[in-house]
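Incident log, entry 3
Record: Phenylacetate--CoA ligase family protein (424 residues)
Problem: checksum mismatch between cached and fresh output.
Input:
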Amino acid sequence: MPVQQFSDLVRFARDRSPFYAGLYADLPPHVSRVTDVPVVDQDAFWAANTVNDNRVLTAPLGEAVVFKTGGTTGTPRFSCYTREEWREFVTAFGSGMVDAGLRPGHRVADLFYAGELYASFLFILDSLAHAPVANVRLPIGGAAPVDSTLTTIEDFGADVLAGTPTTLCRIAEHLVCAGRELPGVEFLFFGGEALFEDQRRLLAAAFPRATPRSLGYASVDGGLLGRPVPGTDEDSRTHRPFAPHTLVEILDETTGEPIREPGRPGRVVVTQLYRRLMPVIRYPAGDRAEWTGAEGGAFRILGRAEEGVRVGPVSLYAQDVMNAVAEADVHGLVTGTQLVVRRWEGRDGLVLRLATAPGQDPADLEALAKAVVTGLDAARPLYPDSVGAGFVHPLRVEWAGHRDLVVNPRTGKLVRVLDERPTS
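Fresh output:
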């Protein structure tokens, strides 16, 4: 599928897709700039992009691969690619893996999840098969038992493990608890969720010679988003657009205007120039980011736009909590963090579920818990103010093992925010 000009894509979408025809009804016949068309409203997009009576697709569903999207938040939805679009998708992403460190002859264990229309396992396997360097692919999957996974990794001498950070940490914890390590692993290619400092420490204990690297930034609904930037091991959030396939914008979260200067956060909006069956034009990717240099160059992902929680009158981003934990945990005891919101005695309360290796000194954990609470209260003073006013319960820390953290059963991703409040 050749990459199209933006104006041609818009013309095609408004001619063939009832959804885009309605969205662009008031536009002039010809548009040439990205900012000439409105940003897609996701709720309207998915209300129109249904299994039956679909109003987004530009043709009947006659030749396509269908995947489920929705991830750790939201109701699962469906995303369609023709075989040409899918080939373009995986070929471009496979070329980005070379930037992540993929080398000729690497043996790569694919530990992503498959089945139930989920894309990541097949996507990574196909991307490796279409990468510009020869490699050996080990399609293990994320649901395989840890013991058999490790046997395959060792039998075939895997150089690279590719999976979500949660899956990689589950394997790492198993190794650490058994007093083992795998020094032969060279790279840990992660994707699907962010990798945090507490997870890096756990991975380093199990894979002492491995370098964690983002294998790229993509989603089933949004498509290609960003390829790795070589030399950014200390900040794996940095990516650059998949030119010429993708147009990436960062928009002001209040005004919707494009952000052009570096260091100013905004929401990521993407246009895919290689997709025609299910056009993706100025589609919100669901993440926040900032340019690291000139507009259109490298950008740094700042987390999910919706990955936060409201506890009583207090709004918290998961990243705020992660920062507080990282600053307090000077001895590297925490290996995973989960925010749990509960409601009891008529008030909301936030519980930080922190994972740590077994055998820690209870006094050390108690001191760390106090430091975390103090740091987060200082960073978000509205929370202790709301406690004082009787609006919410005081912040609490709950200790657990990494295997006790809740993950999405379909994707294997850590559920960063759990809302356990009753809904009725």
